[in-house]
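Two entries, shown back to back:
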Amino acid sequence: MKHYMVIFLLGLTGLIARGQSITPICSFNNFTNGPERPLGELTMGPDGNWYSTSIFGGSNNDGTVFELTTNDVLTTLVSFAGTNGANPYAGLTLGPDGSLYGVAAAGGNNNDGTIFRVTTNGILTTLVEFDSVNGSGPEAALTLGPDGNFYGTTKFGGPLSRIVGGRGDGTVFQMMTNGTLTTLVTFTNVNGALPDGSLTVGPDGNLYGTTSEGGGPGSGAGYGTVFRMTTNGVFTRLAVFNANGEIGPNAGLTLGPDNNFYGTTEAEGGSVSNGTIFMVTTNGVLTSIFTFDGTNGTGSEGNLALGPDGNLYGTTSGGGSNDDGTVFKITTNGLLTTLANFNGTNGDGPAAGLTLGPDGNFYGTTGNGGSGGNGVVYRLDLPPEFLEAPTSQSIVIGNGATLNATAFGTVPFSYQWLSNGVPIDEATNSQLAIEEFVTNTQYQVVISNIYGNATSSVATLTAVAATPAVSLDANGDVILSLATSTNFESRLYMATNLTPPVVWQSIYTNVGGGIWQFTDTNAAAMNSGRFYLLSTP
């Protein structure tokens, strides 16, 4: 004897004030032979501490390499003394050997600058001394290339460049970890002049960079360029800046989530001469996406940082509510939000961009301000922002479900899950586990920290029927195991054949819903095929 069943379940359907702040975690002073005026970005070492340089300070006032531990202990690792380098403008680059590599803009035997390696315990080795012919005055951080070599620029010097005040237009170089230096490109004004920013590895494995001047047809002409270079020195000028738009990028490029590059220009650029933010494609299409107006900042000098939310974060050296500079966020389509303003006490005039720490916070330096007046290391404190929000799902009744939330911002976070707008007791983790789902429900989560909170959009879990289980008992009666939404009445119908017109007979009504069983005690006595239909009246 065969029993048949047809099941049908009628489906059921069913921004916040935010604050940011800048917290100085270390202020530099001028009376302890410590660091003064850090202009470079922070770099996290293999030990989890921050490392960078200062242009002045130290026992000789020629600048320093310093370490800042996670519990905010500041240590001067190196005091430059002229012969081993002086006045480092740029931050440091972590090498494959766990050491930190950097450049000093002056010093060395020729006073044209140096490249150095420093260990996390302060052992410094001078790797290269520039001599004007191979470059002079490096001001940008080194870039670790895809081949394991370092690449960088010198702002002046070079064997074939035009002479400006006795110094050339700069170079691009390659350096092996043992200090072997190769000049790859000499700038000659037409292809660019005076590179001031670091190089960036593109998605194609080539190096991309900017020059602060050059690109014009003659000596001394031009407002800067964007270029591409292979690791063996094949150079292509991609774009030229102009006086009516962008002038003189002092920073390097940042690869965005769309595989385009983003950068900034100095204060003279833009329609109101406060600087711009631009986008450039890998084939050289240059577009200005934002112009600063002073109130939201003036003159961005540091690299942009890509956030985990796909937005770009940066600083301006001036402007804002106190004319001490700002921290901002900008989308790839040019929507800028000022996140915080420097006010002297928390720093003044940042020349460096931001660095994302492993705790999800951005960190940076300013060359001025703070309690000692000689700059600070600061943390940017942000309210939560969703990187992953709970999403709607269709769940088989009786099964479990899991909802997840991931946030970006200043930790620690607290979580509170809501069910149909009502807080769920003890649901205070980033993940909500539902052991046995029985009815349509709308879920949200509120993520909070001391700087604000964010509420997710509604995620609706929709109940769907499981494939019903059918069995026979010892008497030959049919046992139906069913699952329906709670708080909704369900009705079970039976027919003995499906030949039109089908006659459906109501045989049971379930009011409570959930997981339930029905035994058709007439099935064995009828000794015929039976069809079942489940519906919400």
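entry 2 starts here
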Amino acid sequence: MPGARLASSQSNGASAPGASETVTDQQQRRGKATERQGWALQRRRFIDQIHLRLADRVPPASGFAVPPEPRGFGDARVGRDLVAGRFLFDGQLIDAPDCSIWKVGPDTAPQARSYQTCAWLDDLWAEGGPRARCRAQRWVFEWIDTYDSGRGPGWEPDITAARLIHWIDHAPMLLRARDEDAQRIFIRSLTRQTAWLSRRWKTAAPGLPSILALSGLIEAGLALDGLQVDIETAALALGRIANDTIGADGTIASRNPEVLLEILEALNRAARALADAGRPLPIPLMDTVGRIAPVLRALRNADGGLARFHGGGRGAPGRLDQALAGSESRARPEDTPQMGYARLAAGRTTLIIDVAPPLVGPDATDAHASTLAFELTSGRRPLIVNCGSGTCYGPEWRRAGRATPSHSALVVEGYSSSRLGRSKARGGPDLLSDAPREVASHRTDGPAAFRIETAQDGWRPTHGLTHARRLALDRDGAALEGEDLLTTLSPADERRFDRMARGIDAPGIAFSIRFHLHPEVGAEIDRRTETVLLRLRSGESWEFRHDGGARLSLMPSVYLEKGRLRPRPTQQVVLSGRAIAYATLVRWSLAKTRDTPRVLRDLLRDDEAPDVEYGPDEDQEGR
């Protein structure tokens, strides 16, 4: 896909060894750092074992304070794959019908860490049936036999908390038709993990991991009858950490919408558990919930899902709405950008655009080069999307999904608006660097349309070009007009542009404007009129037009989605050309066709799309 090869070609990597430091010196320094990390990990595991032995002295809970019930959002499609023995592990599809989930791959792999949360119980519960129940029971009791002693990657506060919640939520399924010995072993393990978590939650990383650890501790401590846990201290700590993690405007530094949703869900669950037990709710906790809710409403597409930016997915259907309802906050977002995203909404249509620089530096391991990219949704149907995060498909897909060509944005000659560089740590994730220094946006609401004007200078240091994007959404939501402008702003920019525009094969600087389509959108190009007809499964039809200032084409693309065994093939509309002058303007429009009914009853269910192999090194343009 575009982005895989381009992102690799523009990697600035680790800094080159200077005159005062040889390659051997760098290798020795990194080796010593790795050795220190190894010793720190061994020390932490040793301390964890000590606290696990102390947790063994805690009397086991007598049972559950109230009968538990499942509250997660499982995916029945993923559940069927698990029952059939199909696993997506570390980017590889593994077909092993008789294999335990704990033996699919090495414990050191990232996917093994994810399995330790037991979030797959939600998927098996969604699938239902005796085979799914047997798998769930077998794997949970195998975990107790294998890892309950403290071995393996699952003994981290946030992972332990997630595992506790999933076990408690699905206890009826896990204990159905099991004898008293199995129930005793299950409750004993829950007690042990909760007691350990009450001692080790402070070692969780700041932000989301700490919030998940404390929320899980509160829920488990109140769910298990007779277990002595200092709930008051945990609740006060949760309120304080949540208040520190969430900014005064309800945002987080990573700008990942799905992470913000996970934080709200964790706070909601802790607040509900406290309220059900008659415990007081910390004021900082409730204040934080009130700040998050309007931001998430601003990031909500018309279909109820989240905008897919900076590593976040849309979330399971209904997940966002449930979290917003559980917050009990009715605050509405302002028309100004929220967490760096501007939202235009009219009729059945929503448009969300990234109008802020991404996070850069050591914490930018999941940030995307998505400045000025947008998504558009009509009713229940996404139309224009970003490719999404490829993390679950391995490091190459992950890197490809972060590059600008994987977003519905403008791309200059294979350069992302922010560059991806190799981490200095051996085997560490790529970091985002050289991000736009200035990103501006201005919204005006006129009598006929909602308009937003944006600009970013991500290509100014390299090409002398500033990108401006203007969007206008009609008041009825039936038409979107767009303009993309590449221009120089100073004599220095012109000189830089002139140097870069002296091409060997052709003059000017190549660019493309990409509009990635959702897999369920049917697209057909009409060469006679130079338009693209887009058909949604709801019955709507949209027509894409342009002013002729670029070459129109319809090319392959992919949709990267959590829970799918493979990337989903789709298409993208591409306007490509070359910037020869100091200002290059391309106009385009997207409008509903005249035969689209004004009133739709979109009752069709989403069918499963076939899983088709698509390699991250394949260039969608066929180059």
